[in-house]
Design brief:
7-stranded mixed beta sheet; elongated; 520 residues; Rossmann fold; 4-stranded antiparallel beta sheet; alpha/beta; 11 strands
């Protein structure tokens, strides 16, 4: 029991982090909150004054039902309510289980064993979530499993007087259990149907969800019944979304995240999402499948530069691309040009080699794709090998900071030719990266400009921000002249500090309005 009570909060802390940053709210630095909440739970649960731990433990069944019941929700991008509910669930569960563990502690002669088992449980929970789950599951299924385990372990508390009278008789207790379980399956099925419906049944789905929660509280005199009803709540809310994901496309998980490939026949394209962020899209028809989409349209910064590479750099231009995605940029390649891709996750390359996306095979079948961390591979490679280097390597909406530091820019500058250019994609829902790039450009003595592309809403293109940097002001001028000088603008005021490998903080650049679903 000690082992289980320690393992579940530890695993839940990591699974909450993964669930939030993958499927609910892909905000940078969000991992700090679950970690802090988990550590705080020990202070409450092991405190000499037991009042606060007892209050939270009594509230645990309610929080588990109403917050944990949504643990199977998928692709709920930007849900501040779900984020708060998930963090609150983690804290309450961690306090309740740690407090129960504290109450079950042995006498002082066996405390060494107690703390050894508690440490082993924490390690076991982390091992399951961080190492085993990514290999076994294609989604963050460890999160609802751990929430379910929490429901099976938390103290359910005493019954109210009227509940005691209701279940005092053994025969009446059995009848209530039987009727309650039957009603729970009926409500669970209705919750599933209402959640899956698209005809405005949201109110009835919420009503069924709360009815199941109240039923679980009524049946909490029997833990098995409580857990069964809770499981029906999770499945009723989450199964329609997952069923749709499996029915419409392919889902794959690696150590770098959860990828979902979805066919949308009504729109005529296939797309890939990483967590909550769209990472590529390709038309299904043979006539349009080579057409660049999303952030890579012909009027986006990267589209303008790559389409005019021959004009600026002459025939045989060489292009390096950090981040493969669906392989969209391959279709800007001219027959005499050399393209090389850098991709850290082999799973992404598999989508192109297995045929889910054909940009690579259609447009650049002889191009090389190097698997590994792009910065390390570029630093190992020869200098001045590219005329254009494109950097587009974001994980969902999280920022790989080591690719946007002073040292990283030095590596990029070394990799391009004397008149070459670096293109960096800075579209991001949560972080305003333009001042960061302006500070980096000023620090490196490079000329820079930015392209804001806001396509018409009726198209399948996506708004994007691309920054172009060049060691040569004349080279940047040539790029702007070839692509349309009026399409590029100067970067805004640089940030006060330059990101480096020693220090980089996203907090000064966080767009707080995005917490409440606003954008600018």
């Amino acid at each position: 029991m000690w082992l289980a009570l320690a393992a579940v909060p530890s695993g839940l802390m990591l699974s909450t982090t993964t669930h939030l940053t993958t499927d609910i709210f892909a905000m940078p630095l969000l991992w700090v909150i679950p970690l802090g909440v988990y550590l705080l739970s020990f202070s409450v649960a092991f405190a000499e004054n037991r009042l606060l731990a007892q209050i939270i433990t009594r509230a645990a069944p309610f929080v588990v039902l109403f917050s944990g019941g949504m643990a199977m929700l998928s692709q709920s991008s930007g849900g501040i309510g779900l984020m708060v509910a998930s963090v609150m669930l983690l804290f309450v569960v961690a306090v309740a289980l740690h407090a129960r563990m504290y109450d079950l502690r042995p006498d002082s002669s066996r405390l060494t064993l107690f703390y050894l088992v508690m440490s082993a449980g924490g390690a076991l929970g982390g091992l399951f979530t961080a190492l085993i789950a990514p290999l076994v599951f294609d989604w963050v299924w460890e999160h609802p499993l751990l929430v379910f385990a929490a429901a099976a372990l938390i103290p359910l508390g005493g019954l109210m007087a009227w509940q005691d009278r209701l279940v005092a008789d053994q025969k009446r207790r059995l009848m209530l259990l039987t009727a309650g379980i039957v009603l729970a399956f009926v409500l669970g099925w209705y919750l599933f149907i209402a959640t899956a419906a698209t005809d405005g049944s949201k109110f009835w789905a919420v009503a069924a969800f709360f009815a199941l929660a109240l039923l679980a509280l009524l049946l909490k005199f029997n833990r098995l019944a409580f857990v069964v009803v809770f499981g029906l709540m999770m499945v009723g809310v989450g199964a329609p979304g997952h069923g749709s994901a499996y029915a419409k496309g392919e889902r794959l998980r690696s150590y770098f995240g959860v990828y979902t490939v979805t066919d949308l026949p009504t729109h005529g394209y296939r797309q890939i999402t990483h967590g909550t962020t769209l990472h590529g899209r390709q038309y299904l028809s043979a006539q349009r499948r080579r057409e660049p989409t999303t952030y890579y349209g012909r009027n986006a910064g990267v589209g303008l530069v790559l389409a005019n590479a021959a004009t600026v750099y002459g025939p045989g231009a060489t292009v390096g691309i950090v981040g493969l995605g669906a392989g969209t940029l391959a279709c800007y390649r001219a027959p005499d040009q050399t393209y090389r891709f850098y991709e850290i996750d082999p799973a992404i390359l598999d989508f192109s080699t297995r045929g889910q996306f054909s940009y690579l095979s259609d447009c650049a079948p002889d191009s090389e794709t190097i698997i590994g961390d792009a910065r390390i591979e570029l630093e190992r490679g020869p200098a001045a090998q590219y005329d254009v280097l494109v950097v587009d390597a974001f994980s969902s909406d999280a920022i790989p900071l080591h690719l946007l530091t002073r040292e990283a820019l030095q590596a990029y500058r070394r990799t391009i030719t004397e008149n070459g250019a670096v293109l960096i994609h800075i579209s991001n829902r949560f972080i305003e990266l333009e001042p960061v790039l302006a500070a980096l450009a000023r620090d490196a003595g490079m000329s820079a400009a930015i392209r804001y592309d806001q396509p018409d809403a009726s198209t399948d293109l996506t708004a994007s921000k691309w920054v172009v940097l060049s060691p040569s002001a004349q080279s940047l001028g040539a790029i702007r002249q070839a692509t349309g000088a009026d399409k590029w603008t100067a970067l805004q005021k640089p940030a006060g500090s330059v990101w480096s490998d020693e220090y980089a903080s996203t907090l000064p650049h966080f767009r707080w309005n995005t917490l409440f679903g606003q954008d600018n």
